[in-house]
Amino acid sequence: MIIKKIIEILEDWAPKAYAEEFDNVGLLIGKDTEPCSGVLVSLDCTEAVVDEAINNQCNLIICFHPIVFSGLKKITGKNYVERVVIKAIQNNISIVALHTRLDNHPEGVNDVLCKRLDLTDTRVLIPKKESLKKLSTYVPSIHLEKVLDGLHKAGAGALGKYSECSFTSEGIGRFKGNENSSPFIGNPQIKSSSKEIHVEVVFESHLNLAVQNALQKTHPYETVAFEIFSLDNPNPEVGMGKIGTLEKPMEPTAFLSFVKERLHTELIRHSPPIAKKIQKVAVLGGSGSFAIEKAKLEGADAFITADLKYHQFYSGEENLLLVDVGHYESEQFTKNLIFDFLSKKMPNFAIVLSSTKTNPVNYY
User: Fold this and answer.
1) Burial of 73 (0-12, 13-18, 19+ CB in 10 A)
2) Which of 235, 254, 264, 302 is deepest in the core (most CB within 10 A)?
3) What would the pLDDT profile of 178-228 be if each residue is shown by its tens digit?
4) How large is the average pLDDT for residues 283-307?
5) d(Cα 101, Cα 108) in Å, to the nearest integer?
6) Does residue 362 form part of some domain?
7) What angle do CA 24, 28, 30 make, to 5 degrees?
8) Do 119 and 263 have their domain in common?
């Protein structure tokens, strides 16, 4: 199997369209045309991780955090990023990063946190904007079901717990083909009209090409009239963070002990315990201070994240318990998520879960 095929499998699972604009995801080092001898899955890509890939005869590393985040002007080996790049290239190892593609994924980083904390009735905390599109087209009534079926198979009309959704209305289509046309209805150079059905379907933006191909393949007209709009509506299924409910409310101190146990963290930093029990919990893996106000707005009793600064701990005030579990600790289960997915998709392929501890933070 070539590396490009594995990248395509990852793209189907966690599309690049899920990533934030500031991010650097996808193939960062190497050629996608190379045959893959094995995959090493890791949270980060350090020199030790590259050595582990070499020892396991894996020439592809799939990691969560991108080793190259901002631009490199020189590659001289003066820091760990440059040394990783040099070692990977010297040993013909490719590196793929997923990062915010999994942060925004419906079953990604934050979904894993929710499951570890046994949260129910979960939903996205900050739905992603500009990730939905709408197709508007016109179909002769006798071909409506065929076209809709093709669009639905391409992923159009599926959102959240619902699928095969569409809106239709009847109308009259008018057209006139030139002497070289071959109209499905009527004759060339004669103005014709036909009863048509106006079809509208919503779809996620990364499905744009697939939806257009399905339309062209199933529509009977020689020239298909259609429009695609980018929607301002946030996508309720894709986005940063999640919020859910504990089965039973907990006292703040009991909740902190529960979080510490479930997330396998040695140390928790938190704001002063609030004077109420914790039941509604928001989570956002990694640096999540930007979501504090959103967590408050959604009525969360506690917000679990990482990298909070001193003054941000005041932001919880008396209604929200802020819980900083650590950046690594909040994302540590992500490599298992990637490993489990690839193992199911490629059960007969060499996929190795990295045993290298990449957390740069130590506790004394």
Assistant:
1) exposed
2) 302
3) 767 676 666 677 777 778 899 999 999 999 999 999 999 999 988 899 999
4) 97
5) 8
6) no
7) 170
8) yes
